[in-house]
Design goal:
Order of helices and strands of chain A: HHHHEEH
Oligomer: heterodimer
Number of strands of chain A: 2
Number of strands of chain B: 11
CATH architecture of chain B: Beta Barrel
Largest interface: A-B, 18 and 18 residues
Order of helices and strands of chain B: HEEEEEEHEEEEE
Radius of gyration of chain A: 19 Å
Helix content of chain B: 10-25%
Strand order of the largest sheet of chain A: 1-2
Distance between the termini of chain B: 26 Å
CATH topology of chain B: Lipocalin
């Protein structure tokens, strides 16, 4: 029972780190590719970006389901406002895990380019092709992605604060025992 | 009116029985579109400027002649960026090859309202034989010719250099057309 209270489940850890890696890659690609001139590289990056984004969306569905059916470890003893802020930040991140890829998918649909995951799985269009709508959705997608980046930054700062100032070994909650070392 | 009719009759006689009065392509009701895949994503484009010359009697397809000219600079994809890319030398090279053409060499009947056109397709300075199935249907005063055929873009050097990678832009391009013609005799 003690184990459940101080550590996330191994499934939750796996999803967390996989999603973290993919979200980092997808944001870097997104920022880089939009500045490129038309080229095969740009075309590739746009498609990879969409494939990773849709994979994040799919993983987030599994993640939400897992979160709804499993208890995370108990909160660290921190002031109430910090605990509330941490929970709020987590729910905002969850919401954005869905909102950012969905907005991107809709943006692609509105631009007249259906999403074909891994070049084989054709996804239905979320909206009909429409130029003004595509422009609006582009801003929505970028804005939400920026918001997600900001909340993730806050998340990292909070982890660093706990790990290095409070020294409450917060990282060990999300790291498998085998990798724990000095956390 | 009478005069014009007489001229028409004389013209008919001169050109030969069957090829009736002037046959014209009506661009406003016509469409030439093409589809290809970019990393699995279907992309559609269309040509907005083209013209044609026709001398075709549905009853005597063998004697028919068809020539289409397409302005390669008029390819539109629904994105200004792609439109601007298509004119470049790697793609249509519009500066050097402003027009593509299709000229019939032989036309034969292939069932009621259906024809098989063997022609030369010339794009970007390369000519290739193509087989084009065509279906004709009357729509009021117009005759609508529809059909589709596939070409391989690399045979015409469309998409050179880095763009010749077919894992990114597929080699096969589906061409679809709907041509509204006036002056074609009854089917």
């Amino acid at each position: 029972m003690m184990k459940l209270d101080t550590k996330y489940s191994s499934v939750a850890m796996a999803i967390h780190w996989l999603a973290a890696l993919m979200i980092f890659c997808v944001i870097v690609m997104g920022v880089y590719m939009t500045g490129l001139q038309m080229s095969p590289t740009r075309l590739k990056l746009y498609n990879w970006h969409k494939w990773v984004g849709i994979t994040i969306l799919a993983i987030s569905c599994v993640r939400l389901l897992w979160r709804a059916t499993h208890r995370p470890p108990t909160d660290l003893p921190t002031p109430g406002w910090q605990r509330r802020a941490a929970h709020a930040a987590h729910w905002v991140m969850y919401a954005l895990f869905f909102a950012v890829p969905l907005a991107g998918w809709a943006y692609s649909s509105a631009s007249g380019y259906p999403v074909v995951v891994f070049g084989v799985l054709l996804l239905p269009d979320l909206v009909a092709p429409d130029k003004p709508l595509a422009l609006a959705l582009k801003s929505v997608h970028a804005g939400l992605a920026l918001a997600l980046g900001a909340v993730i930054a806050l998340h990292l700062v909070a982890v660093a604060k706990h790990q290095f100032f409070n020294r409450d070994r917060i990282l060990s909650r999300m790291v498998p025992r085998a990798f724990e070392g000095r956390t | 009116m009478k005069n014009r009719l007489r001229i028409g009759v004389i013209a008919c006689a001169l050109v030969g029985a069957g090829s009736a009065m002037a046959q014209k392509l009506e661009p406003a009701q016509s469409e030439i579109a093409f589809t290809f895949r970019q990393m699995g994503v279907p992309v559609e484009g269309r040509f907005t400027k083209f013209s044609g010359q026709f001398a075709f009697d549905p009853k005597k397809p063998e004697a028919g002649k068809v020539a289409l000219r397409i302005d390669t600079g008029s390819a539109r994809f629904g994105s200004a960026e792609t439109d601007g890319e298509a004119v470049k030398s790697d793609w249509f090279n519009v500066a050097k090859f402003p027009q593509a053409s299709l000229e019939s060499m032989a036309i034969k009947a292939a069932g009621p309202g259906k024809y098989e056109l063997a022609g030369k397709l010339n794009i970007k300075g390369t000519a290739r034989d193509v087989q084009v199935p065509v279906t004709l249907a009357k729509s009021g005063a117009l005759t609508i010719a529809t059909g589709a055929f596939a070409i391989k873009r690399l045979e015409f050097k469309i998409g050179e250099g880095d763009w010749s990678d077919t894992s990114m832009v597929a080699n096969e391009v589906q061409v679809k057309f709907k041509l509204a013609l006036s002056g074609i005799a009854a089917l």
